[in-house]
Structures
1.
Amino acid sequence: MLGADPNLNTILQIAIGFLSAFAISLYLSLVIWTFRDIRSRTRDVFAQLLATLLVVVLNFAGLLLYLILRPKETLTQAYERALEEEALLRDVEERLTCPSCRAPIEKDFMICPECQTRLRRKCTKCGRLLDLRWTTCPYCVTDVQAPLSRRDESLPRPEMEPQR
Ligand SMILES: [Zn+2]
Ligand SMILES: [Zn+2]
């Protein structure tokens, strides 16, 4: 009996049991959390294994090291950033320029304001702006005249129009 109260002994044993169970759960949770976290940050199996082992072996110290060394972005964040960069790049590429003088133009310009090059023409029926190469209006399916070269009638010149 070693002089200890048997009741106290039982309580102590239960308390120790709970504490150990809690410690083991905490330990396992840390390992599982680390494994999940590293898996969301890299596809490299070796890095995943290393990070998890770090926490398995060193526990809290390992977790601290892992938090310092882990990749900054999750794969999802990296993917989203890549998408954003791509969209930004596309924006820059889509900025329209005049094909002959490279001046910036708007999508609905009919001529280049700098060099007067013809950029678009109006549909004879619905009046919407058409690409010079199109021979049919895609909006109202009207045949428009044969494609004009960009230098042709760069500006309307009524006095030079042949009279029929
Ligand atoms: Zn131009
Ligand atoms: Zn049309």
2.
Amino acid sequence: MDYFMKHLNHGMLCNLYENMLKPRMIEEKMLLLLRQGKISKWFSGIGQEAISVGVTMALNDDEYILPMHRNLAVFTTRGIPIKRLFAQWQGKASGFTKGRDRSFHFGTQDYKIVGMISHLGPQLGVADGIALAAKLKNKNQVTAVFTGDGGTSEGDFHEALNVASVWQLPVLFCVENNGYGLSTPTSEQYNCKNIADKGLGYGMESHIIDGNNILDVYTRISALIKDIRVNPRPVLIEFKTFRVRGHEEASGTKYVPQELINAWIKKDPLTNFENFLLKEQVLSESIMASMKKRIAEEINQHIEIINKEEYVVPNKTKELHDVFKNYKYQEVISGNNLKEIRLVDAISDGLKESMEKHEDLVIMGQDVAEYGGVFKITEGFIEKFGKERVRNTPICESAIVETAMGLSIAGIKSVVEMQFADFVSSGFNPVVNYLAKTHYRWGQNADVVIRMPCGGGIGAGPFHSQTNEAWFTKTPGLKVVYPAFPYDAKGLLITSINDPNPVLFFEHKGLYRRIRQDVPTSYYTLPLGKASIIRSGEAVTIVSYGAGVHWAMDTLNEHSEISADLIDLRTLQPLDIQTIYNSVKKTGKLIILQEDSMFGGIASDISALVAEHCFEFLDAPIKRVASLETPIPFSKQLEDQYLPIERFLLSLKELLAY
Ligand SMILES: Cc1ncc(C[n+]2csc(CCOP(=O)(O)OP(=O)(O)O)c2C)c(N)n1
């Protein structure tokens, strides 16, 4: 203890103590309120406070910290007023999520805290992104992120550590090994001696720290953080500790041997530190008593304030409005210079010009740097923009999407290239749960475009041919763009990058090198949510997007007797339904052609909307034409049968004859 006395002054020792005491007292109050039925759920961090306090105090206030459900002490040590926490837990407006998310599932830029999503692991990759931003901006900052022993079994953990190590990101990965993940003991969670041993596998420095000793935690983490700031690298810390209460209060601790709990209660970090401070005469009993009195009064006052606050009054307009960050589309009109280029070139040009316009914009993806990406869209980019901004990634789709989220939190735009749209399934969770929901939850936008080379007709089989836009059009919070022509692709990609919201940008591989068009050589934008009318006619409305637009054009070219409106949706979310309504009101007949298999696709929703809103104008039942309800097969014969190209003409004729 002499060591600590020499290195920590009186004020610091008092701060460490008070920062542990306060969350303990809040928790004790919460347990009371829980018993009175005044709060619904509580995940206790009692006995683990030293870790939260030690790590938070070792960081500077402008360094991000990403806590979990047992890290109340992170929030209080960062100075969040108790009343705002109570408001958050009660779902009230003065909390952090306007009643939209519970407990510690929130972030706040004011306190540089990024709270978890329920899925535990994703925040580890988000920390990578924040740390990458710090590194790119030469900020000499460390990002600290927490997980439990259970969370280390998730793929996100492995991916995040791997990416952080390959890129030497200044992340402090803090694992609180508290013996159990819900009811699962560590012996059933992993099969190695220490979680810290895993660091070796990633080429990462790691340490084991006694998580119940505040002085150990604070001094060792402080020294490490100081070093990481000047010598950026990831470090894995395993804090040995114990969860002395249940997973959450309602679930009890029957499965935990009582002797184990008793033994760990003896190691309680707060009691032991209190005894130490008394013994060393740093604090007296009476000073401690007055501290406790002051904190108890503060807690009671703040609870009273929040008890009086009204519950959120539901307002549909406001809820819908907050799904996306406000973005006012800025029109940039193209110059007159045109050049005939392919779809693939248009995407490359849009990307290149966006990299020039946004000096911070980062591109991430597998093989996108020297190799130029498998479709060569980023060929030559590193020569122009450097390897820091055009980043080859390991095969870690989840961690890369999470990294993109982290970059956005730190104010940097990014474009992620999925090598094939099919592989987004390996990063699905952060797309639909993190990127899509964060603005609605706590007002943090995800300034990310995910490029999705998709589509069939090229004999690439079930895992290189899917057009999986429907996985995303159904998720509020995502924009979905799907151009069919080079001109649209360039303008819409530029707008997608300008838009501060998450955009899934679908690029049909079959069209990449087949479709050519005169495209302005200068930078220009096109608005999302505006369909284009490719052909005008009287007898029928044809709606499609992507390759379907070209199939419909081919059909109309071969059958010049058919007078049709052909609408290319261009963007699916937002959807320009009004253009469809206007056309259907004129023609009285609607056929929707979609490359994806039928059930649950966008064609079904368009069909339902038109049936609901234009029923009186329809002269025939709406037709949907789509691929078979099978995975997309490899052989040409099977794929031809799968795709709806031939069925489209038959259905169109049936509809015209109705
Ligand atoms: C992906 C996912 N699977 C399962 C759960 C349910 N769940 C919530 S917390 C938890 C245990 C987590 O254990 P650990 O990471 O050790 O943290 P601790 O609760 O012990 O602090 C489980 C299984 C979840 N939230 N997310």
